[in-house]
Predict the 3D structure of the following.
Amino acid sequence: MKDTPINYEAVSRIIKELNLNGKVEKASIREIKKLINCIENETGERFVRMEMGVPGLPPSQIGIDAEIKALKTGIAAIYPDIEGIPELKEEASLFIKMFININVSPEGCIPTVGSMQAGFASFLTLSRIHEGRDTTLFIDPGFPVHKQQHHVLGLKYESFDVYNYRGKKLREKLESYFCKGNIHSMLYSNPNNPSWICFTDEELRTIGELATKYNIVVLEDLAYFAMDFRKDYSHPGQPPYQPSVANYTDNYILFISSSKAFSYAGQRIGIMAISDHLFHSRFPKLLQYYSFDVFGKAMIYGTVYALSSGTSHSPQYALAAMFKAANDGKLNFVDSVKEYGEKAHIMKQLFTDNGFTIVYDKDNGYPIADGFYFTISYPGMTGAQLIEELLYYGISAISLAITGSEHTEGLRACVSLVQRNQFPDLEFRLKKFKEHHPIN
């Protein structure tokens, strides 16, 4: 038995009790969370928790105040309009103009129960717009739950790890999938979860041009809106703007989350922004499932209505207020989350000082930015070995294997829940890990 920071016997026993022996690498994010909770409760030791991609900063007070005010008016007793409250739709449309420099009409800005519901609703609806097209393409690595949603819905998907297909290589790779004729939509996150790579305007242009050429809808997940801290996207109505495929095609849906940029994850509120062109497009096949063949109407009154009968009422007022404050230049939401990048810089150094390597270390030839996530591996160890072994040192993460990454030797580390006062403990545990696992 090793002299590990966390009791070796207790960790081994709990892994077996949860039927995760030899399976930790393939465990879902929530399964890893439960495992760590059990170990912490059993041992009384606090983990350096990097498995959950949840905010670690206080929520915007502007949102809290607006939601409390709305609740006091009695709106909790009233069903929200399925299309969303007018204030939110107007401010969402303006937010997209102010920070992406793209025009999306308020009618296409639909509140959803977080970006998760936006994705679920989009996958479901888009799978029904074309005869003979039944597959989503994921540009990986990506958020594992999007694939889980496909499994739940019984939908098909294909995917590839984009790391070796950056720049000019991206066009040929995408066309190799699109030319088969079975793809109806494609999804990626930008910045990317988990690698933190960020697509360039050249790459977004390629994606947009091919989406138009093959009539494919691009789902752009902006969960980490404006969080590529190498550029300052925080000033409304002024360049530089958040890069987006919306500059290069009319076939898009944007997922704009309140969870990370505004630290408002608990209220499950986000925006699905459908381009004006797509919103008004007609697809006869939709009439097999909906009362409308107009895409936007089918989405709102068919899919979103059936899923949740609208989005929780009071958080809509919160998000409207936060958008308005950002649009008016009164809330610099980017400054509020720069802490993530600063912590990532320190944590990456602690890992690399102790023998770890950064898996996705370059972004189109340049050093990867510091942000919400980074990726790690350890010489001589597989991802399966590493994720389980780190548990005995009080460090948790998730496997890159469940993200669609080709780098199955690596793990995804999220900085959000790690407090600065844990850095000395993290350094001690990493040094102990290196001592127990000497590099040949």
About this structure: The CA atoms of residues 180 and 370 lie 37 Å apart. The mean pLDDT is 95.
